Input
Amino acid sequence: MPYISTIPQPTDRIKDSQPQILANFTAIPTLIEVNHVGFIGGANDGKHTKVDFTANTTHPLVAANQLLLYNNGNELYVKKAGALATPGIPFTKGINATQGYTYLPSGALIQWGATSVTGDDTITIASNPKFTAIYHVQVTSQSNDLLNNNRTVVLRTWTLNAGVSFSLNVTGVQRLSNTPTTVTCYWMVIGV
Output
């Protein structure tokens, strides 16, 4: 039986409204215990067991001084007050691969990847998702060859190309001789 919010009426006798009142007491836990610990009389009463988010096809508005957590396109978003006209931050979105990306709940975007460079070289990466600003770039050489591990990569400059891509100008060299050589390297870029 569904919950009846108008029971009891001031003119009702309790014995006449008792079936509806009992039905209400049955309906209340049915609602409250969805994804919550029920009325078991313990320290965990009312705590979440999990949280389900319905799918939103739009990015909802957030009230002043509040924080909004919602599902849109099967990704979990966080939205702070004051961000009315913009979507939230998709902090579960990303690609967990050799070349991938992820968002932090603060809105920071991290992209990474691996490639090989030889001598003076340029690594151009499509910015997808797009960076509007870059705050940190790191390039690290990688070698599994213990007999020839004196290779390094040096980051000279980087360029953000109108949010479409970014370029890392690097040099792959042998450490002790500065001779141009092929170097496998990992790169990581942090921005927004």
Summary: The chain has three domains: 1-49, 55-92, 106-191.
